[in-house]
Amino acid sequence: MKGKVILKTFLKEIHKHRKQKNDIFIFTLPRTGSTLLTEILNTNYKTKTASEVFALNNSNKEILLKYFDKDFLSERYTDISYYNYNLIIKYLKDISDGKTWNSYYWSDLATGYHNLKTNRTIFKAHKITYYFDDIMNNFKDDSALYLVRHPFSHSFSRIRNNWDTYIQQYSQSGKIKEQIPSKAQIKISDISQNGTALEKFILSWCLENFVFFKKLQNNTLPKNILPVTYENLIYNPENTLRQICLHTNIEYSNKMIKMLNIPSHGIVHSTDITKEQISSGNKNYLLSNWRKAISKEEEKKLFGILELFDFDFYSYQNNLPQKALLNY
């Protein structure tokens, strides 16, 4: 352990970062394949990763507490003050400029793609889907990907890990509350009080992604943001990655495709079976294994939650999103 600390300290001292190319932001929820996508893009020469920029592990807290107060860090980032919003922007810009660090800077050491001279940053940004468009308005010269995963697959994964939903925080937030259809408002209260765990997580998925989906529906996404789905990344990787590379100004390479069959070095919440299926390239398992847990009738009923929000990007009995809506 001591040897690792010495090595990291040495590498940190000799690492040189000078931003010369556009940074890349990946906005998403946890358990969407964001670690995989980050590692794929990090195969590009001279990139550095800033993964889990708002993670509350001990080492990252030391960095975050230099920017934010303790109470702010314990909250979900909805309806924050103008002051705290500006602190978020400063923190991200300082990482981009190499003025501060992120504890997950070392997450690429095990992949073999760690660089000591870097000129762009890949941000894996959880927790701030509520402000993703506002943030990119402050990073107009950079590019972003908004990564989505099927709500059922995503919900089962969060349930398995015993995580929380964020129904109340998002349903009562100013940016969302007035836009929620009245039919959904009524159901939110019912599901919050009487719903099953799966119903609650699917509802939370709708709310946590609400700002993105509404902008996608209204065709008001900023031009520097590209929608990406986990399903298309797995099922149609070459076309998806080529489109991502074009958007982010990264050179496409075959190394990226090879990464799809290597369980992510950052995986800590996936089962051993899932890791085996990744290694074997079993796309059907990765996209549809969740169906074993519910009947077709239950699936159809649960899709009623998405219909309350007029979200039709995913549909009953389909593993893949509707491609036309996501511009693939």
Can you tell me about this structure?
The chain has 328 residues and is α/β, with parallel strands linked by helices. The protein has a single domain (2-308), classed as P-loop containing nucleotide triphosphate hydrolases (Rossmann fold). It is built from 18 helices and seven strands. The protein has helices at 2-14, 34-41, 58-64, 70-73, 82-96, 132-137, 151-160, 167-171, 174-177, 182-194, 197-208, 210-217, 230-235, 237-248, 254-259, 272-280, 283-288, 296-308; strands at 16-17, 24-27, 47-51, 117-118, 120-125, 143-148, 225-229. The termini are far apart.
Please describe the topology of this protein.
Layout: H1 2-14, E1 16-17, E2 24-27, H2 34-41, E3 47-51, H3 58-64, H4 70-73, H5 82-96, E4 117-118, E5 120-125, H6 132-137, E6 143-148, H7 151-160, H8 167-171, H9 174-177, H10 182-194, H11 197-208, H12 210-217, E7 225-229, H13 230-235, H14 237-248, H15 254-259, H16 272-280, H17 283-288, H18 296-308
Parallel strand pairs: 1-4, 2-5, 2-6, 3-5, 6-7
Helix pairs in contact: 7-11
